[in-house]
Amino acid sequence: MTPATATRPSLASCVGLGVSHGQGEARVDALRDVTLDVPGSSTVALWGPSGSGKTTLLHALGGLVEPTEGTVWWRGEKLSSLDARARGRARAGGIAYVFQGSNLLPHFTSFENVAFARWAAGDPAGHGAAELLELVGLGAKLDSLPSELSGGEAQRVAVARALAQQPALLLCDEPTGHLDSDTGARVLNLIDAAQLEFGFALVVATHDADVAGRYEKTVELEDGRVQAGEKTR
Ligand code: ADP
Ligand code: MG
To answer: What is the whole-number distance in angstroms between the Cα of residue 197 and the centre of ligand 1?
Structure first.
């Protein structure tokens, strides 16, 4: 942990986290004994090969999967002790995702995708949907359907959609996995610029060491375990 992150209070964390899928012979231990701290406004990469548990860890931090062992904390409360509605409110009140594919609603325009997410998050004060699309450079594509956008444009809409929720924590799962490297770099630059402007904590799952190297802390996963020697810069 860097001195800078050491002084910041924890926003999301997990202690001794284990997540297993399936039972008996079919049981897969996707995560084992994972302890991780995400201070507010910090940037963290989850780095490891395919199947190492990155997606499962992002989902556990966001309350989308139940831990088999251990505890996930969100703003000082045990996430697993909250009931489903309260977990939903925790997500609506502070956690947003950007996935590998943009996962936009196909029959909604760019504007409607962002406005809908903003509405679902309780219409927080701050930037409106059109303003956010301007911010990601898509002011001219408000009325475009996802099928009329390039992969990079669709992913920028997905970033605007996440920002519309005014997250305290943005979880990105291989956000540039489907993009060519130049387009991917532009999307990552955009996410980093938004992180600086809005100050949310950012956790990015990636198999790419160059992508991981952009963030303050890299947590290396292999076979569901955190590897020793967490890197900070
Ligand atoms: P990564 O994102 O690093 O590729 P994942 O978190 O997706 O890794 O997967 C970790 C392990 O858990 C893998 O062995 C994967 O096959 C397994 N796994 C993930 N989700 C499920 C599921 N829903 N059912 C069964 N196994 C799963
Ligand atoms: Mg994954």
So the answer is: 33
